[in-house]
Write a structure and sequence with these properties.
about 525 residues, Porin, 16-stranded antiparallel sheet, disordered N terminus
Length: about 525
């Protein structure tokens, strides 16, 4: 992909349609083991003079009202703290300001790291007040050696609505996207939130209009949770929707695809209409482990290409949007999800695992009959201060007759980077295959490992990567129709593979990669520019 991506990105920022900022929700924890980063733990150890007291940990903009009395130490992360009531313990604000209002009482010390403290005249603070910087938590050598990982681990740890961890608050945001089916799509979203001590219900969704599709699209949902909201939350919810949907968001993000389509005349996602409703329940089995069960009633229909406009590369033509298997699909979906990565956007250590099962059959009065199983494993492993290996394995199989929109394809962005887009589809499957194997590995190296600085290049990362995978149809190799059929016939020569090099920013979000297929010298080099990590 071309550097022209950057121009449109700046243009979107100018319009104010950037990814919205985040304010995290209020939450509590009962021990220092609940801290999300080394910075938090070091700050608590240094500035809480009575560590034996209970800990009340909040995220984002927080207010202790005049009718509240907190008996314990208070930690506020990534937000300002306003105190109107009473706190019997120390106060620590990390990346935020502290305001002590008239009538407030703090029986302890107040420390603001990367922030300020303001005390009203008619308030009482029995301890000391200190304004400092996070760098002062560490020795010079510690900060110099570990500053990158500390900053990355701390500043980017925000949690999405499907994480097992607390959901962050996202400000209401505009939606702007572009693709060959909808053309320009403009909408407005109210994201899912978990907020407040006594709030257990969230209403969320979005609505918008696709100008070339000439259709309104929406989703409205509500979720109600019980028990501890952070550790063992039990949640019930429902939603209704009418969507121009895609299964390709795991390949690249929607906004990356919008940039590609609007600027370069390349739309890397396929679309269909999905309308209906869903009921779901979920249970957090721990702060990192979650199970979900859902019933879905979806009407699927094909969509056509409605625009061929692009700002540049006007000689190109958008490919047609493929047809799908139309009909009413009633299905049960189950998922087990584990995630203890140290950072959800830019992980440098930890595990991610997801096991999913979907079943649809005549007993559910569905037009389709199939079972589908998916397993994804990721590992982010530090080898040293400036070295890391990222690895992903993704497996999928099925039983029955899988509808076209549920089949698998590999090749290109986000999968086998040395192959053309979605070129690996199975011997007899023009649309895709019902079985998939995919493995990706990246060796990530910082120039600092060599012990010297070289202009700005010491802020880049060098990545050596390898991809391997295959997609095929069970019916092509086996007469059995069960989930494990067709694997024993898979040969080593059926596995497609590539190797490559990439240069990326420190976070990995901006990267230029060059990949080469290992099976041929014809069209063997693929260059890809990305604005997000592949996994």
């Amino acid at each position: 992909m071309h550097k022209i991506y950057l121009y449109l990105f700046v243009f979107f920022i100018f319009l104010g349609v950037a990814v919205p900022g985040a304010r995290a929700q209020k939450g509590t924890a009962d021990s220092l083991h609940a801290f999300g980063s080394k910075i938090e733990q070091r700050a608590a150890e240094k500035y809480f003079s009575q560590p034996e007291l209970p800990l009340f940990r909040y995220e984002g903009k927080t207010t202790i009202d005049d009718d509240e009395s907190v008996k314990g130490n208070v930690l506020v992360v990534d937000g300002d703290l306003k105190i109107r009531g009473q706190i019997q313990g120390d106060v620590l604000a990390l990346n935020g300001n502290v305001s002590v209002k008239n009538g407030a009482e703090v029986d302890g010390n107040i420390t603001a790291i990367n922030g300020t403290i303001r005390q009203s005249k008619e308030s009482t603070i029995s301890g000391n007040q200190l304004e400092t910087h996070e760098q002062n938590l560490f020795s010079y050598k510690e900060w110099d050696d570990d500053s990158e990982s500390l900053i990355d681990d701390y500043h980017s740890r925000h949690y999405g609505p499907y994480s097992t961890l607390p959901v962050h608050n996202v400000d209401e945001s505009a939606i702007l996207s572009f693709n060959r089916v909808q053309g320009l799509f403009i909408g407005y979203a109210i994201p899912k939130k978990i907020t407040g001590k006594y709030t257990f219900l969230s209403v969320h969704g979005f609505g918008g209009y696709g100008f070339k599709e000439k259709a309104w699209r929406y989703e409205v949902g509500a979720d109600r949770w019980l028990f501890n909201k952070t550790d063992y939350r039990f949640e019930v919810g429902a939603k209704i929707y009418d969507l121009t949907d895609t299964r390709d968001n795991w390949l690249l993000t929607s906004w990356e695809n919008s940039l590609s389509a609007a600027l370069l005349h390349r739309d890397y996602q396929d679309y269909y209409r999905r309308s209906g409703y869903e009921f779901h329940v979920s249970q957090n089995l721990s702060i990192f482990f979650k199970g979900t069960l859902a019933f879905r009633n979806d009407d699927y229909s094909s969509l056509q290409r409605n625009t061929n406009w692009s700002l540049f590369a006007k000689n190109r033509v958008f490919r047609e949007n493929p047809a799908i298997s139309e009909g009413n699909m009633r299905s049960l979906y189950g998922e087990l999800y584990f995630d203890n990565r140290n950072n959800l956007k830019h992980p440098t250590s930890g595990w991610y695992a997801k096991l999913g099962l979907e079943t649809s059959n005549s007993k559910l009065n569905s037009d389709f009959s199939f079972n589908q199983y998916q397993l994804e494993l990721r590992r982010y492993q530090r080898l040293g201060r400036y070295e890391r290996i990222d690895a992903r394995v993704k497996l999928a199989t099925s039983e029955g007759t899988v509808p076209l929109q549920k089949l698998y394809q590999l090749g290109g962005v986000g999968t086998l980077r040395g192959f053309s887009y979605k070129s690996v589809r199975g011997a007899s499957g023009a649309f895709g295959g019902d079985r998939m194997l995919l493995a990706n590995m990246e060796y990530n190296l910082s120039p600092k490992t060599f012990g010297f600085d070289f202009l700005f290049f010491d802020h880049l990362r060098y990545i050596l990567f390898a991809d391997a995978g295959s997609v095929w149809n069970r019916a092509d190799v086996s007469e059995d129709n069960n989930w494990n059929a067709g694997f024993s016939q898979l040969k080593l020569t059926d596995i497609k593979s590539d190797i490559g090099l990439a240069i990326s920013s420190r976070s990995g979000n901006t990267r230029l990669s060059i990949a080469k297929r290992t099976d041929t010298n014809v069209d063997a080099i693929v260059v890809i520019f990305r604005l997000s990590k592949p996994f």
